[in-house]
Structure formats: structure tokens, C-alpha cells
Amino acid sequence: QNATSPIMEELIAFHDHALMIIFLISSLVLYIISLMLTTKLTHTSTMNAQEIEMIWTILPAVILIMIALPSLRILYMTDEFNKPYLTLKAIGHQWYWSYEYSDYEDLAFDSYITPTYFLEPGEFRLLEVDNRTTLPMEADIRVLISSQDVLHSWAVPALGVKTDAIPGRLNQAMLTSTRPGLY
């Protein structure tokens, strides 16, 4: 799915940035290897050159900084919590999820996976559920995630959210959807 939140758009832009750096490094290495295989000349003076040693020491450090700084910025953006408009509590069970809207009294339901033989044409196996969670658009939503019995992972890839549900621990994530849809 396409990105539906600002965080996921940033993650996609960072992926493209890192992929371009990897492509440039791979092209340079391939070029140097092809030169080494096709050229018969060897220069003994370059084996002891301090300038070349400085370049191949400093250049990888600069490249790592070019990757690390945008990565850290996005990492801090994902942990930024504003005043939430709505709080959703997701509790993982062995075969289903329980959802509670904490801001409303007695608003909770269970969400089970739809069996394969009940699927309609166009629905996805192991992704369809009997009770979908409905959340407002363009609102900061806090999701409190925990587990009742075993480790789980609560993820919505289009929103750029993936958080582990661990028994006895309460994790939280923020999400914002910029357009309506089924995610």
C-alpha cells in the first residue's frame, strides 16, 4: 500500500536515500574491480601513499554519517507523542486481538481472523477480520499495545507503525492517517 501517514512518507524517502547511497557505492566498487581485472599496470607508489589511506578512512565515515543522521531524525519522529485525540488499547491474544477505546466507557470488542472459506472475492486470506477497528482521519491517535499470553506484533504498514505486544508490558505508538481507507 502507499504511505498514508507523514511518518511512512519519511520512511520511504529515507529508504530511497539509503538505496541511492548503496547504488553509488556498488557502482564504484564494480568499476574498481573491473579496472583491476582489465589493467595490467600496478603502481608501487600508491601502496604507501598517505593520501589514499586518509581517503579510504574518511570517506566511509562520511557515508555512514549521511545515512545515520536522517535515520536518527526519523527515529525521533516516531517516538514523538502529542496530546492524543483518541486512545486505543490493543491486547493480543493467541488467536485474536481485543480492542478497547479508552476514552469511551464500555466500548470494547474482539477481532478474529476470518476463516478462508468465509472470504468474499477480493478479500485477503489472513488479513480479513470479523470486526475491524475504526479510527478517525487526520487525528493523533495513541495506541497502547500489550499481550495477554504470548509475544505478538501489532503492525499497520501503510501508517508506518509496528510495535511488539509483550505480556506484562504496555507499549505505545502514535499514528495519524492523512486519508481514509482500509489498512
From TrEMBL:
Q: Which InterPro entries match?
A: CcO_II, CcO_II-like_C, Cupredoxin, Cyt_c_oxidase_su2_TM_dom, Cyt_c_oxidase_su2_TM_sf
Q: How is the cofactor bound?
A: Binds a copper A center.
Question: GO molecular function, one example?
Answer: copper ion binding
The source's superkingdom equals Eukaryota
Give the protein name, as stated in the record. Answer: Cytochrome c oxidase subunit 2
Q: Name one GO biological process term.
A: ATP synthesis coupled electron transport
Identify the coding gene. COII
Positions of transmembrane segments: 12-34, 54-76
Q: Where is the Cytochrome oxidase subunit II copper A binding domain?
A: 83-183
The Cytochrome oxidase subunit II transmembrane region profile domain extends over: 1-82
List the source organism: Callimico goeldii (Goeldi's monkey)
Q: Which family is annotated?
A: Belongs to the cytochrome c oxidase subunit 2 family.
